[in-house]
C-alpha cells in the first residue's frame, strides 16, 4: 500500500466557469472509478492566473491510497 498524487488541469473562461468545473469534477470522478481508487486522502484546488492576476485556470490535486 502506498500513496499517489494525480494532478488535473482545466482552463477557465469567462461565463463558462460552472460548466468547466462540472467537467473537471467528471474527469476526477472518472479517474477514481476507472482506477479503482478506494481511499482519497486529500483534494486541493489552486487557481492559475495571467500576468494581470486574472484567473485563467484551475489545478486540482488528488492524493490517494494505492
Report on this model:
The chain has 66 residues and is of the alpha+beta class. Helix content is 27%, strand content 47%. A three-stranded antiparallel beta sheet has the order 1-3-2, with helices on one face. The longest helix has 18 residues, at 17-34. It is elongated, with a radius of gyration of 13 Å. The mean pLDDT is 95.
Q: Kindly state the percentage of residues in helix.
A: 25-40%
Q: Whole-number average pLDDT?
A: 95
Strand percent estimate: over 45%
Q: In terms of quaternary structure, what is this?
A: single chain
Summarize the biggest pleated sheet. 3 strands, antiparallel
Shape label: elongated
Class computed from helices, strands and strand pairing:
alpha+beta
Q: In terms of per-residue confidence, which ranges show pLDDT below 50 for 5 or more consecutive residues?
A: none
User: What is the H/E order?
Assistant: EHEE
What is the helix tally? 1
Rg (CA only)? 13 Å
Q: Calculate the terminal CA-CA distance, rounded to whole Å.
A: 6 Å
User: Total number of β-strand segments?
Assistant: 3
Widest sheet, order of strands = 1-3-2
Features:
three-stranded antiparallel sheet; alpha+beta; 66 residues; elongated
